Amino acid sequence: MAQIFIIGLRNDFNLISKSVLEDEDFPCFVVSNLAEARRELSQNTPELVIVNGEGFTSQNSWVADFIAEFDSIPGIILVKANSGQSLDWLLSTATEIQSCQIALVDAVRKFFSEARSNQESPMLIAGDLHLDKRTEKAYVGHHEAHLTPSQFKLLCFLMSTPGKVYTRKQLLIRLWDQNMNYEQVIDVEIGRIRKELKRKLGRDPFRTVKTVGYAFNEFIGSSRTS
Predict the structure, then answer these.
(1) For the chain, first and last CA: distance in Å?
(2) CATH entry 3.90.320.10 includes domain 121-225
(3) Burial (CB count within 10 angstroms: exposed 0-12, middle 13-18, buried 19+), residue 125
(4) Among candidates 132, 136, 137, 135, which has minimal Cα distance to 122?
(5) Residue 117 DSSP SS3
(6) CATH entry, 4-117, from 3.50.50.60, 3.30.70.360, 3.40.50.2300, 3.30.300.330
(7) Which is nearest to 218 in space by CA: 159, 165, 168, 163?
């Protein structure tokens, strides 16, 4: 079963998240400082990291250090309080707590379900955007989007897990030479894919997470496979 790290200083968020996810048979480890994170990583490799993203770079600077230091993290879900999107972690009433619990479990289930199915399926679909892994071609509606092989590979990788955040270094290691250390290439390639797809899709295909990296925009249709 998948292992999840829940990191950050908000104990209410950490403990409720752990309890809810473990009730659904997702093993979780709560880590609240960098030393603890290093210790757990030496014994367990997480498949997913969940972070309360609100103000984490200033309030929980160790979280940013953790993300930057450990390139083996498969991916990150940032839960941002009062974002108005994705998961809203509002702890003021019992109804809100129950609603957020359901949203969190649904998001984690969707994450692992899509990760498994997208690895096996020859097609990736998100709204009007279609990727054919067999031919390495991308289409918006009936029109082909002109992408280089490396751009297709990058788009396909991010699109396989909508909303999942990857650092630039993680993307370099997973998609290019293991020894490559030129992270700006990710920014360049993301920019070129954006230019090709944004006008055709009517919205940005990527979400930029400041100081962290990139995710495929989970609000572009409903990503699915066929």
Answers:
(1) 25
(2) no
(3) middle
(4) 132
(5) helix
(6) 3.40.50.2300
(7) 163
Per-residue pLDDT tens for 131-174? 998 899 999 988 999 999 999 999 999 998 888 888 888 888 77
Segment (H or E) for 161:
none
**Could you give the 3-state DSSP secondary structure of residue 151?**
helix
Query: For residue range 47-90, what is the model confidence (pLDDT) as tens digits?
Result: 788 876 555 554 556 776 776 666 556 667 776 544 333 344 33
| Sign of the alpha-carbon dihedral angle for 152, 157, 159, 164 | negative
Q: What is the pTM of this model?
A: 0.53
Helices 11-23/94-120 angle, 10° precision: 60
Q: What residue spans define the domains of the chain?
A: 4-117, 121-225
Identity of residue 182: Y
- Give the C-alpha separation, 30 to 81, whole Å: 19
Would you say 141 and 202 are in contact if contact means Cβ atoms under 8 Å apart? no
Question: Are residues 188 and 150 in contact, defined by beta-carbon separation less than 8 angstroms?
Answer: no
Bridge partners of 165, per DSSP, are 76
What DSSP state is assigned to residue 49? E
